[in-house]
Amino acid sequence: MVNKLWCETVIPNLWRNPWCYDIDYCNKNYLFEIIASNLSDEIKEFLIRKGIQLPSVSSRPLLFDYLSFCRSININIMNTVVSIGSSLAYNQFLLQQEFYKLFMKKCPELKFLDIKSIKHQIFYFPEANTRLESLCELKCDTSIDSSYFYGLARICQYIQRLIIFNVKPKPNSGISKLIEVQKNLKYFEWIDDFDDGYVTENPYKKIFLELEKKADILNHLELYFLHFDISLMQRLLPKLYKLKTLIINELIYDNKNILKSLVYNDLEILKIDYITIDEASIIIENSGGHLKEVSLKPYNFVYYGGNFSEESLIFIHKIYENCPLIEYLSLTFSPSKDHFTEFELLLKVCQHLKSLLLVTSNIYLRETEESTLKNGEELLKILIRSAPINLRELRFFNNFKFSLEALEEFLEKWRGRPSLSILSSDSIYEGGDYKNLINKYKNNGVIKAFRCESILNVENMEFKI
Hints:
Elements: H1 4-14, H2 29-36, H3 41-49, E1 72-74, H4 75-82, H5 89-106, E2 112-114, H6 128-132, E3 137-141, H7 146-155, E4 161-166, H8 173-180, E5 187-192, H9 205-212, E6 220-224, H10 230-236, E7 245-250, H11 256-259, E8 269-274, H12 277-285, E9 293-296, H13 298-302, H14 308-322, E10 328-332, H15 337-349, E11 355-359, H16 369-386, E12 393-396, H17 404-414, E13 420-424, H18 432-443, E14 447-452, H19 455-459
Parallel strand pairs: 1-2, 2-3, 3-4, 4-5, 5-6, 6-7, 7-8, 8-9, 9-10, 10-11, 11-12, 12-13, 13-14
Protein name: F-box domain-containing protein
Organism: Rhizophagus irregularis (strain DAOM 197198w) (Glomus intraradices)
C-alpha cells in the first residue's frame, strides 16, 4: 500500500514476532488463512475430513513466505487462532499439532517461546533440535509436567531470559533441571499466580538453589511472591553479586548485618514494594554508583511508624551521595527546613533525573491546610531554582497540595523548559479554576499532561502519563 521496497523491508520485521500486537486474534481470519495456506494438500484433506474449516484454495500465491520470517511461537495466541478452524477440542488438538509442526519446519530458528498451557511435546518434532537450540527467551508456567522441561533441557541450554508463572504451588523438578543446564542465563523472573492459600510444599527451594549457581552470569532478578520464604531469600540475594536489576515485591531482613551483605556494584534498577526507608538506604549505600532507577512503594512510607523524619533525611543523603546517574526516583521526606535543603542539594547533584515521585508526609504527621499549602509552595520554588534540565515528569502522592497562585507562578516560571507531565492523586486539581489554569498552560506547551489518578497508578513508575 506504500511501495514495494517499503513492503519488503517491513514484512520480515512484522512477522518476526506476529503474536505481540494489541489485536483481537480470534477475529483476524487472515492470520489463520496465511498459516493454513502453508499446509500440504494431504494434511489439508485430512483436516477437512475431520470437519475442520480451512480457507478455500486461492489461485493467487502469497506475496511472501511469511512463516520463514518468524522467530517466535506463543502457544496461547496460536490456540486462539486455531479456534477459528473448529470449536471442537479434538479438532483443535489436531490443528494445533499441524500448525506447530509447520512452524518448526518453516522457521529457520526460534528465539522466543511462550509455552504456557501447552499440550504438545514439540521437542519431538523432526526439526525441533535445530530450531530450539537457538532459543533465547522462554515463558512457561508450573502446571506443565516436569517431563516436558526435561525434554527442553536436553536441547535448550543457552536461554538468556526465563520467565516462570507459578500457577501450581508445588515443586517442579523439571524447571530446576532446565535452570541447571543453562550456560548463559542472564534474566530470571518468577511470578506467583495462584489462589493465595496454604502451601503444603515449598515450590521455590530447588529452583532458587540452582539460581545460586548462576551468580556469575545472572544480572536481572524479578520476583513476585504470595508466600515469602525469608530464609531462602536471605541465602540467595547476597550471592547474586552481579545483579544490575533487582525487582521484588517484598524484602524482609531481621538483621541489618545480613542486609549489609547485599553488595551490588553493578546495580542499575532497584524496585521493591515492601521495604523500610532504613533498609533501602543500606542497599543504596552498598551499590556501585550506577543506579538509574530507585522505585519504592510510597504507600508503606505513608503508614510507616518508625523514625520517619530522621530516616527519610538519611535516605535523601544516600541518594545524592551514591546515585549521581539516577533517572527515576521515588522520594519520601518530612516537610522540614532540613529536608527541603537536602532535597535541593539532591536536585543539583542528580542532573540526570527524568521522573520524580514525591511523598512529603505520613499518617503520623499532622498538618493544617495552611501548612500543607505553604510546604507545597516551598517545594515548587525549589524545583524552579534547582530542577535538572532533564526532568520531564513529576508525581505527587496522596495529600500533596498547591494553591492556585503557587501553581500558576511555578508554571509561568517553567516556561521555556521542556514540557512537563504531572500526575497527582489529589482530586483538588479537577476543580474548575485548576482545570482552567492547567488547560491554559497545556495550550502554550508548558504542560504536556496533567492527570489525577489513583494512588496505585501514581506510585507505579511504569504507569505512563
